[in-house]
Amino acid sequence: MLLFHVDAFATSAFTGNPAAVCLLDDREMDAQWMQALAAEMNLSETAFVRRQGDEWSLRWFTPAVEVDLCGHATLATAHALLEEGLLRREETGRFHTRSGVLTAAFDGEFIELDFPATVAQRCDAAGELIEGLGVQPMSVLRNQFDYLVELAREEDVRALQPDLDMLRRLPVRGVIVTSRASIPGFDFVSRFFAPACGIDEDPVCGSAHCALGPYWAPRLNKTTMMAQQASRRGGGLRVTVAGDRVQLAGRAVTVVRGELKV
Q1: Whole-prediction pTM value?
Q2: 126 alpha-carbon distance from chain centroid
Q3: What proportion of the chain, given as a percentage, has pLDDT over 90?
């Protein structure tokens, strides 16, 4: 089986969000084995992809748990399949996942993913959330996965140093923190903390933008926006809201290609 280390939502190596991609063969590998490999890789997500006729099955694991939706590891998977000649640039990859059928199309230098929107609704802010973030938010929302918190300024997002132990106790996958962008060329910035899933801070979280896109589109009066995730590694992506779907476009770079021996 082939194994790749790919930096997603990146234009150069060692930026963006690293993911492992395991190209499965015909052997049936169970979830326990996949979880063990994901823990061995120790990246925010490891993707497991297997051919299914003309389409693909796809699962994602953090070092601790299997997740229902992951953007950057899907981007990394499409990139690896393209480089291996298993997807052609003129075709659309179709992936069967726990979140339904997701697609990846090649648009020039970009790979564009088609994901379901995960619209967040306003909610009461749990005391542990406010205490864990250590700041007073402008608004707090929640969807089926995460809290979404807007802060007043980009500087507040960048300077945030949350209490991860407290965030780990919240009954959600993670916490998205966002603000309007003040840097040229971007519409909004964000950071994503998911210590309950074994990821203190995700460098660039594609699935978080399935909530961020629908949140910011009416506020910015745009359906296509440029987003920057303001983590230490950082990364950018194009976000397009189309009804109940969100298109996430980015680039990727292969860092390692190898053969799995176990």
Answers
A1: 0.90
A2: 24
A3: 94
